[in-house]
Glycoside hydrolase family 25 protein
Amino acid sequence: MPTLMKTLRRPVIRRRAAAWRRPLLLALLVGLLGTAFFYGHYRRQINRYVRRAYATWRSGHLTGLEKTPLLAGYSVHGIDVSAYQGRIDWSKVAEHQVRFAFIKASEGVTLRDPRFRRNWKQAHAAGIYRGAYHYFQPDYDGARQANLFTRQVPLMPGDLPPVLDVEHPQFHDVHKMRKGIATWLRLVERHYGVRPILYSNYSFYRRYLAGHFDEYPLWLAHYEVDQPKLPRNRWIIWQHSDEAYVPGIKGTVDFNVFQGNFRRLLDLRIPPKPAASAPH
């Protein structure tokens, strides 16, 4: 009798197993398709996160001699740095065909980058054409931010124009932000006698700045693309990576290319002051 009962139960167990197997397989299939769709849609962000996680993990083993290949198709390459990069060996940086560097000087209305003066002097001594930038805080007064920058940065003939970095995502009023940007640009241009460069990332620029500051040269940050989506006549510098390695810097650094040859970069520099005419 027990043997007969076991024999009768087997088809029931098989039917129950089959009933569970079908929805399970369907759920797995849907999960795989969903994962494939999600990765296909967000693969750049996911790959970027994985690379950054890996870079963080291996940061303790870096030597400062790691090297990212130069971007093909461009002849003038540069970096931008702040205190985040730590102590920089600028002579080694110059050996990696880095022709220009923008150095963070200030942020908001009070913050001075603690490594600015050292970087400013040593980049110049290494033969790298230097420029300085201010990180704009949208909810603070534009005039006070301009005053902080001009008191911090001793731009001279031969230096690259001043830069306003506008990308901070948190602000209360876009019109107030634009007014503050316009104030900074106007005051800094008046102080140094040269038109500043405006820096922003692609999405922020398209959403908040496009059409409002077109008279200023644009330095565009746009990653994970073969070319910026903006037309070439709209930007002069492209920050194509913020996770590059350059010998002389222990850790990642922003990598940029200048749209044009070296002669055009030299033409961008602050011109010499006109000589005073001799009295008659």
